[in-house]
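Milestone 3.1: sequence recovery, worked example.
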């Protein structure tokens, strides 16, 4: 087991609410000059969850399950930034009121720009939830460090998830299971942002040859990926030899410079070695999304009826 400062971490209650859906333009123009009029971010998404493909949806930047924030009118406010920063991947969320009161979910990532926190709930909860329902998150994880690897920075990660990721140590190097390795040259929207503890940045998918070469069209929401030559220790930028480990949080996009978004989890300029493991997905690790036993059974019953 990795040694950490888990006993020193601060656990806080942060409270937001289900965000309203958004529409940006009548037609959003892609890199080939074609217009697209499609669903996008926010709200409650019933049929897209972690474990599902990140590509192929008739949508743009689709966020799985529930999108939450504090204030739509002041997305860059200190309150929204704190909510986005403090909620970590793997934290428990609980609905405070309405028909879904008491339902529990799991944070699966952040989406920058709109400043949404993304939360997985089971089908029963999603059916009862409504826009503006209040959600309390037991926020825990920011400030997490590895005792024996001070050069490694961790952001946005519940300590319990860290221990489930299958990380091993070989000759002083952390070997981390990932679904895919993504070259830093493909990173777009969000690059240069100074705060790896909020939001995300996008894997650009406008070059079909590169998408095929690196198998990016097979990515799923919740996949753990490695971005090579990418340093997220104190901001998102290129650095030769650095590795950033991140989780895929939203779907592909038609927009130039955009694609599946990833939330930073672990980053270092040296000492990280990604190892391919196709099962490295939050749905697998946490038993959520498409890997919730209850939802799989309900899905089979619907298909049989």
């Amino acid at each position: 087991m990795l040694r950490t400062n888990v006993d020193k971490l601060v656990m806080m209650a942060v409270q937001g609410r289900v965000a309203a859906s958004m529409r940006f333009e009548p037609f959003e123009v892609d890199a080939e000059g074609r217009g697209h009029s499609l669903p996008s971010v926010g709200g409650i998404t019933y049929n897209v969850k972690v474990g599902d493909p990140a590509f192929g949806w008739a949508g743009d930047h689709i966020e799985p399950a529930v999108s939450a924030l504090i204030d739509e009118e002041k997305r860059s406010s200190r309150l929204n930034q704190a909510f986005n920063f403090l909620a970590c991947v793997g934290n428990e969320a609980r609905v405070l009121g309405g028909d879904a009161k008491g339902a529990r979910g799991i944070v699966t990532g952040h989406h920058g720009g709109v400043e949404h926190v993304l939360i997985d709930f089971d089908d029963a909860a999603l059916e009862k939830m409504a826009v503006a329902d209040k959600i309390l998150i037991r926020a825990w994880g920011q400030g997490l460090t590895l005792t024996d690897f001070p050069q490694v920075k961790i952001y946005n990660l519940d300590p319990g998830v860290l221990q489930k990721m299958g990380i091993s140590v070989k000759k002083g190097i952390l070997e981390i299971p990932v679904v895919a390795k993504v070259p830093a040259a493909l990173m777009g929207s969000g690059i240069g942002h100074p705060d790896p503890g909020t939001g995300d940045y996008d894997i650009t998918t406008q070059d079909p040859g590169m998408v095929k070469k690196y198998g990016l069209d097979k990515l799923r929401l919740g996949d753990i990926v490695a971005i090579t030559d990418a340093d997220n220790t104190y901001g998102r930028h290129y650095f030769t030899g650095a590795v950033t480990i991140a989780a895929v949080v939203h779907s592909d996009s038609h927009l130039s410079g955009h694609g599946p978004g990833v939330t930073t989890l672990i980053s270092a300029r040296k000492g990280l070695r990604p190892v391919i493991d196709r099962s490295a997905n939050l749905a697998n690790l946490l038993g959520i999304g498409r890997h919730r036993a209850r939802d799989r059974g309900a899905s089979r019953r619907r298909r049989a009826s």
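Confidence is low (pLDDT under 50) at residues 300-305. Helices lie at 78-86, 123-128, 159-164, 208-213, 282-286, 293-304.
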